Amino acid sequence: MFVKVERDYEAMSQRAARIIADLVNQKPDAVLGLATGSTPIGLYENLIRIARDEDIDFSGVTTFNLDEYEGLPAAHPESYYSFMQQHLFDGLGLTEQQTNLLSGMAKDPAAKCAEYEEMIRRAGGIDLQLLGIGGDGHIAFCEPGSSLAGRTSLVALHPKTIADNSRFFDRKEDVPRKALTMGVGTILEARACLILATGNAKSDVWAKMIEGPVTAQVTASALQLHPWTIAVSDELAASKLQNLDFYRHIDRELIDQPELPLCIFQPELDPRRNIFAAL
Predict the structure, then answer these.
(1) What is the residue-averaged pLDDT of the chain?
(2) The pTM of the whole model exceeds 0.90
(3) CA neighbours closer than 13 Å in the CB half-sphere of residue 117
(4) Which of the following is catalytic: 143, 189, 234, 270?
(5) Annotation marks residue 29 as catalytic
(6) DSSP-assigned letter for residue 85
(7) Among 74, 91, 137, 193, which lies 20 to 30 A Cα-Cα from 272?
(8) At 69, is the secondary structure helix, strand, or coil?
(9) Is residue 57 annotated as a catalytic residue, yes or no?
(10) pLDDT in tens, 236-264
(11) Known catalytic residue: 143?
(12) Does pLDDT of 276 surpass 60?
């Protein structure tokens, strides 16, 4: 895991946006996995600015979102479809043909989730998966106790997640109790993962993710098993890391090295390429 600590939220957002912008600049048909929530908003704002200022073409990009609330139609203001349109898709000019999101109104969630997995495979797999970390250490909506080999599925949300998300809804009873989400196993198949954290409230789970044991009780800890995870945070979120000085030393020493693995640009070098080879 490549641990990178920036001064504050804006600096973290700028660095993460630069990673994605450079990927698309080098690979115009990149497949991006995208996240929602408050943490990536600054990244998306910076990415739109960089794309405009540097004339980076996103017309060949394909995207897959991590999750969606069950029971919310796409037009609902708190759906993740609405979030992505507002914070990224409109700004980059992405079309509906380029963007893929789970449907919260699916009549058969299991079939829709299986179809989503197939769509990812047919796209050649995800090159870079963007992630945030929940207050209980979850990624996507893979709550504590979720299988670390799990696939896209319908899940029940943890009471803490429901409470955390209540700030986005007018009434607590309006907060969805279930969601469709990529599984940890789905996420780990991405060629690279980029996870972000900001603020002191995330410092405990950030330390558990990076330095704690790999456990289904902190599903983000599964990223320790991924060959190329980039973990970018501000100083507050990183404040409880025991090896913080060492991570900063590594970042300085490797400043001239690529941020992303070569297998993104040369898929034949991906040791897991057989997952997608026949599609």
Answers:
(1) 95
(2) yes
(3) 20
(4) 143
(5) no
(6) I
(7) 137
(8) strand
(9) no
(10) 999 999 999 999 999 999 999 999 999 99
(11) yes
(12) no
